[in-house]
Design goal:
CATH superfamily of the largest domain in chain B: Ribonuclease Z/Hydroxyacylglutathione hydrolase-like
Shape of chain B: elongated
Structural class of chain A: alpha/beta
Number of strands of chain A: 30
Radius of gyration of chain A: 38 Å
Protein name (chain A): Integrator complex subunit 11
Domain Beta-Casp (chain A): 245-363
Structural class of chain B: alpha/beta
Helix content of chain B: 10-25%
Number of domains of chain A: 4
GO molecular function (chain A): hydrolase activity; metal ion binding; RNA endonuclease activity
Strand order of the largest sheet of chain B: 8-7-6-3-2-1-22
Oligomer: heterodimer
Strand content of chain A: 25-35%
Largest interface: A-B, 89 and 101 residues
Domain Metallo-beta-lactamase (chain A): 16-210
Pfam family, one (chain A): IntS11_C
Number of domains of chain B: 3
Largest sheet of chain A: 7 strands, mixed
Helix content of chain A: 25-40%
CATH topology of the largest domain in chain A: Metallo-beta-lactamase, Chain A
CATH superfamily of the largest domain in chain A: Ribonuclease Z/Hydroxyacylglutathione hydrolase-like
Distance between the termini of chain B: 38 Å
Shape of chain A: elongated
């Protein structure tokens, strides 16, 4: 029986470093190749040694597919392709292909330039890696090779996010990446057709949550920002440069416009304008409303939102700052956070999920004292030359708010996607084990649901139908017997010969099979003699036999042929008298091997009866 | 409900005779598929131009009266420079609507935005309930072109609708080319915006290489054709037949994604339309001439008028000018693009990264706009206006270059510039669109002083390219408009300007109905796993195995599956013999056909093993006869047959049968 195997190397019962291996129909596919924001050591990247202990991955993988540009889905890609070694095709959508290298470069800079790590991928490696990328269009069927085909669907998580349908023969798997089932201010909702995959691999970030309406969350968010501004406080919103940032910018921009607010809104890093350019050029990936009106008004040209300069952080008075990265694990958002954390008038709003180990995760769990590593430059350092990392304790006094704006499907959304795709099995990844259990329980009421840990393989047995080419003559003969559509209540049996030659399977009538294979038919016949006493002439005897059989064998075709034979179906009966005694007749019954269920005795019994 | 159709016939109904504005209907398996619905707009050349502002010249043209004075149509027909024009809202020649019932069309496949302009005539008021398939750029730009057409017509409403001239008796007496116009009664005015919206609401978007199933019987898939943004060829196939529809394709590297040629391979039938209308004009040469004539006129202080469509070649012209402007020191010359959809067309061109050639895609990744006209606009070198009214009239500076429609010169803002600039020989009109004869287009403006330059740019396949392509993809049969099977009338010696193929292409003309040659012999059926697992294959020849199959056939939505035969219910407790005698038994698998021969020595050895030792062998002409003396039984062994003559001894017969079968192959 064919099997499909799924092994997460990352994102198994966890969020971060998404990387899932799928083996289907003899093909091996890697889905996503992400990094983990919670770790700075080996655990940062998926454990590729699972695939092979020595050497390159090219021979072991047929293709790599990246679902979207978030680093926890693509952050390990240059490491995998350039440092471990992979030269096969990497697939991603156009927006992902455009944006992914920028975020990778950003990640590299923070890691190498700021934290001073060595043995990390270089800018050149990012470029070389991107050369291996083949862009995917939505709904296009891409033939990776003769047997493996993939098709991307809109996922609505960030610009260019895609779900992917992977198919070999009649077996298939859908991988969702991250997705969102409700349209928001700039993206549409995820959609997939009823493709009935053998396995649906779904993210489950919000597996236990059924979120209240988006409007409530937006109102709450705006209220909190507004209140802080009113009391002269500063609002820090850690975001990733692309994605929620644009959503929240649109939200604040419209609010500022409506309320005629004057407090400045800043967006950190020079990426803003560039980021917005991507949204403008890939406008076909945004939601219906933005697409329809983009000629008149481009939603990504902001009036109130200005570029941030590091010096502004010390300016007096209220302000709102969007700063990267989103989980407060490094970079500008962390720097600003450190500056503002001591003032209870200020506020930090975490608009998305934070993985374990990040500052974002810690403060969301109520930690108010944070131990920080600082490459100290301050006066507290006694010996300026000491190569020491200082432990600084940071008191968190500012208000910490969490507002779930990440565009992930919640429990309801996940169930919705299941209804759309109608999978036979479900695998949950990209979520926390405890939360997954809850959803698993719900799903298992309907079908099998798995939640493998990293390095753990689950196996699903598939039962594919076998496609065969049936000769039109045979099919027509079948149709002719029962009208245009066979009656489902009276199934009829069709018989034929299946010819298996190389990769082709042909179903033809037995006669045609003989012809096609250039074989002669071998006739196997049987003849049996039966004696009986009858005083009539031979023809009369034959006629008597005919009448008799007619009366006892109902439902059979019985014919009296002019050449002096009687045929019961295809059994031939002849009569001759014995030379010595004309009253003793010899019946010759002759039939071929193909005659159905004939036993000579039936007929002779029939003749002897009465 | 859709009945399963196993008929082999595939037919093609040809509703348009225009080779580049095709409209064909393919009946394939149980589906009716319209391939494009091009609108033949050359009919508008018979009409008088629609001026945006009152034109004293046009209003003073004399009416037409027949020479003998018997027919007076001075209200409907006007004479200009020896030609007669209809003074009425221009009308279009529609695809044939009588050849088949348009309400039976299941789907319409659109190949590019120029080939969909008749869509509202097909989908509205005809009972059409199907789906239209097109790519996103085709839909968006097609919508702009329709919107522009409607706008051109509606902003200069004409009360009069001329119909008298269409009377057969009268038309006969008119001078050419009106006299020779065909089917004039079926010509129609332009549709409304409401009809456009309704028609376009029926469009379902598709991407290149997307596979769309129609009723489970047919799969369609668009392929990049390299001609314009989102332009496609189509594959229409079942598991065993493949029709390729090639329409408006290009192998030149301009802005669209390159043509996908390899997917056209293995076609049973290839329908070929939309070849270049200018087979002797090289697009690059024309582009060069365009630039040099433009520069010459501007330097001499004249204006340049470029009648054009609002999307397509104009993007390439602007890109070419972007590089040319500085070197030709035209940096201060204003370039104007005037169309109700000018802004939208320029904006839309920048957002279709997926549909562009590789170079342009790379620019988007930076992120920069793929077309340099963004920079021309930013630096104020190119300005666009919805019409000559409003801002344009106050900002307009001469000498300048104006791009505007419609290329027929019968409506749109171009009519105004013809009236304005036609009298001066300093000015130049440069024709770049190949759809209209420039002499016919200019006829109602004669006499003209302005210079005319004809640089038609048609990037579609020429005959040389298409022969090469066909050699490569090797379709079994080619179907094409009859125009492609002979050299053009004006160049009858140019046998290189026609398709020469073996077997010769099947030509069509307006109203043809062709039966396409298919030798369909197979259909796809799926064997369910349970049945598949129960099959017992045996090797017949090296690498070839066979298995006999007995199964129940289920057919639903044109999909066939084979299932195991359900086990018969247990026999009722009646006397077995009686049941067997009086009813035909439940049909179980029949015995297979046999093949091979029974070898004498080996067979005798086998008999011996089974205790049959007294065998007398007699040689005959065709083989041997074996007498099984103890059993009083004969076995006749021949090359292609075995005959067992055995009296009422069922167990023996069964044993012998099985021994014989050991040596034979079962099919």
């Amino acid at each position: 029986m064919p099997e499909i195997k799924v092994t997460p190397l990352g994102a198994g019962q966890d969020v971060g470093r998404s990387c899932i291996l799928v083996s289907i129909g003899g093909k091996n596919i890697m889905l996503d190749c992400g990094m983990h924001m919670g770790y700075n050591d080996d655990r940062r990247f998926p454990d590729f040694s699972y695939i092979t202990q020595n050497g390159r991955l090219t021979d072991f993988l047929d293709c790599v597919i990246i679902s979207h540009f978030h680093l926890d889905h693509c952050g390990a890609l240059p490491y995998m392709s350039e440092m471990v070694g992979y030269d096969g095709p990497i697939y991603m959508t156009h927006p992902t292909k455009a944006i992914c290298p920028i975020l990778l470069e950003d990640f590299r800079k923070i890691t190498v330039d700021k934290k001073g790590e060595t043995n990390f991928f270089t800018s050149q490696m990012i470029k070389d890696c991107m050369k291996k990328v083949i862009p995917l269009n939505l709904h296009q069927t891409v033939q990776v090779d003769d047997e493996l085909e993939i098709k991307a669907y809109y996922a609505g998580h960030v610009l260019g996010a895609a779900m992917v349908h992977i198919k070999v023969g009649s077996e298939s798997v859908v991988y969702t990446g991250d997705y969102n089932m409700t349209p928001d201010r700039h993206l549409g909702a995820a959609w997939i057709d009823k493709c009935r995959p053998d396995i649906l691999i779904s993210e489950s970030t919000y597996a236990t949550t059924i979120r209240d309406s988006k409007r409530c969350r937006e109102r709450d968010f705006l209220k909190k920002v507004h209140e802080t501004i009113e009391r002269g406080g500063k609002v820090l919103i850690p975001v990733f440069a692309l994605g929620r940032a644009q959503e929240l910018c649109i939200l604040l921009e419209t609010f500022w416009e409506r309320m005629n607010l004057k407090a400045p809104i800043y967006f950190s890093t020079g990426l803003t304008e560039k980021a917005n350019h991507y949204y403008k050029l890939f406008i076909t990936w945004t939601n219906q409303k933005i697409r329809k009106t983009f000629v008149q008004r481009n939603m990504f040209e902001f009036k109130h939102i200005k570029a941030f300069d590091r010096s502004y952080a010390d300016n007096p008075g209220p302000m709102v700052v969007f700063a990267t990265p989103g989980m407060l694990h490094a970079g500008q958002s962390l720097q600003i956070f450190k500056k503002w954390a001591g003032n209870e008038k200020n506020m930090v709003i975490m608009p998305g999920y934070c993985v374990q180990g990040t500052i974002g995760h810690k403060i969301l769990n109520g930690q108010r004292k944070l131990e920080m590593e600082g490459r100290a430059t301050s006066v507290t350092l006694c010996c300026p030359l000491a190569p020491i990392k200082l432990q600084i304790v940071l008191d968190v006094k500012l208000q910490v708010e969490y507002m779930s704006f990440s565009a992930h499907a919640d429990a309801k959304g996940i169930m919705q996607l299941i209804r759309m795709a109608e999978p036979r099995n479900m695998v949950l990844v990209h979520g926390e084990a405890v939360k997954m259990e809850f959803l698993k329980g719900k799903i298992e009421q309907e079908f099998n649901c798995y939640m493998p840990a990293n390095g753990e393989t689950i196996t699903v047995t598939t039962n594919p139908s076998v496609p065969v080419d049936i000769s039109l003559n045979l099919l027509k003969r079948e149709m002719a017997l029962g009208g245009p559509l066979p009656d489902p209540k009276k199934p009829r049996t069709m018989h034929g010969t299946l010819i298996m030659k190389e990769n082709s399977l042909k179903l033809v009538s037995s006669e045609q099979a003989l012809k096609e294979l250039g074989l002669n038919e071998h006739q196997l016949r049987f003849t049996c003699r039966v004696q009986l006493q009858d005083p009539h002439s031979d023809p009369d005897t034959l006629h008597r036999i005919y009448t008799h059989l007619k009366s006892v064998l109902k439902g059979y075709t019985i014919q009296h042929l002019p050449d002096g034979t009687v045929m019961v179906e295809s059994i031939v009966i002849k009569v001759s008298s014995s030379a010595e005694d004309t009253n003793t007749k010899v019946l010759l019954l002759s039939w071929s091997y193909q005659v159905k269920y004939f036993q000579c005795s039936y007929l002779t019994d029939g003749l002897y009866r009465d | 409900s859709r009945h399963l159709v196993l008929a082999n016939s595939v037919s093609l109904y040809c509703l348009s005779g225009h080779p580049t504005l095709p409209c064909n209907v393919l009946k394939f398996k149980s589906t009716t598929i319209m391939l494009d619905c091009g609108l033949d707009t050359t009919s508008v050349l018979n009409f008088l131009p629609l001026p945006l502002v009152h034109s004293p010249r046009l209003s003073k043209l004399p009416g037409w009266v027949s020479k003998d004075g018997t027919v007076n149509l001075e209200k409907e027909l006007k004479e200009c420079a020896g030609r007669v024009f209809v003074d009425s809202q221009p009308e279009f020649c529609l695809p044939e609507r009588e050849l088949l019932d348009l309400s039976t069309i299941d789907v319409i496949l659109i190949s590019n935005y120029h080939c969909m302009m008749a869509l509202p005539y097909i989908t509205e008021h005809t009972g059409f309930t199907g789906t239209v398939y097109a790519t996103e750029p085709t839909l968006q730009i097609g919508r702009l072109l329709m919107e522009e057409l409607v706008n051109f017509m509606e902003r200069v409403p004409k009360a009069q609708s001329a119909t008298c001239w269409k009377n057969k008796e009268i038309q006969r007496m008119l001078p050419g080319p009106l006299k020779d116009a065909v089917d004039v009664w079926t010509w129609k005015r332009c549709y409304s915006m409401q009809e456009v919206n309704s028609a376009l609401s029926k469009v379902q978007l598709v991407g290149y290489s997307q596979k769309v199933e129609l009723f489970g019987a047919v799969q369609i898939s668009p392929l990049s054709s390299g001609y314009s943004l989102g332009s496609s060829n189509w594959i229409i196939q079942s598991h065993h037949e493949k029709v390729s529809y090639v329409s408006g394709s290009s192998l030149l590297t301009t802005h669209p994604q390159p043509m996908d040629q390899s997917s056209l391979k293995n076609s049973d039938v290839l329908i070929l339309t939309g070849l270049t209308q200018m087979p002797t004009a090289n697009p690059d040469g024309m582009l060069g001439e365009f630039c040099s004539n433009l520069a010459m006129t501007i330097r001499a202080g004249g204006n340049v008028l470029v009648p054009c469509y609002s999307s397509g070649v104009i993007y390439d012209l602007l890109e070419c000018l972007y590089q040319f402007i500085e070197s030709a020191s035209l940096g201060t010359t204003p370039f104007y693009f005037i169309s109700p959809v000018a802004n939208s067309s320029l904006e839309f061109s920048q957002i279709f990264a997926e549909w562009l050639c590789h170079n342009k895609q790379t620019k988007v990744y930076l992120p920069e706009p793929p077309f340099p006209h963004a920079e021309l606009i930013q630096t104020n070198k190119l300005k666009h206006y919805p019409s000559i009214h409003g801002d344009f009239s106050s900002e307009f500076r001469q000498p300048c270059v104006v791009f505007t429609g419609h290329p027929s010169l019968r409506f749109g803002d171009v009519v105004h510039f013809m009236e304005l600039w036609g009298k001066s020989s300093l000015n130049t009109i440069i024709f770049t669109e190949p759809d209209f004869s420039y002499l016919d287009a200019l006829a109602p403006y004669q006499p003209l002083a302005m210079k005319c330059v004809y640089c038609p740019i048609d990037t579609r396949l020429n005959f040389h390219q298409v022969s090469k392509l066909l050699k490569e993809v090797q379709p079994v049969h080619v179907v094409c408009p009859e125009q492609y099977t002979q050299p053009p009338l004006t160049q009858s010696h140019r046998s290189d300007l026609m398709l020469e193929l073996q077997p010769p292409p099947m030509p069509y003309r307006r109203c043809s109905v062709l039966n396409l040659p298919f030798r369909r012999r197979y259909e796809r059926v799926y064997i369910l796993p349970e049945l598949a697992n129960s099959l017992v294959p045996s090797e017949i020849k090296p690498g070839i195995s066979v298995a006999t199959v007995s199964a129940v056939l289920h057919s639903k939505d044109n999909k066939h599956t084979l299932q195991s035969v359900p086990k018969p219910p247990p026999a009722p407790p009646t006397k077995k013999r009686k049941r067997v005698m009086e009813e035909p038994p439940v049909v179980l698998a029949p015995k297979p056909l046999l093949s091979g021969a029974v070898p004498l020595e080996a067979f005798l050895a086998t008999l011996q093993k089974h205790g049959i030792t007294e065998v007398k062998v007699e040689e005959t002409a065709d083989g041997h006869i074996l007498h099984l003396q103890a059993e009083d039984t004969l076995i006749q062994l021949e090359e292609d047959g075995t005959h067992i003559v055995c009296d009422n001894n069922e167990p023996l017969r069964t044993t012998l049968r099985d021994l014989v079968l050991r040596f034979l192959q079962k099919l």
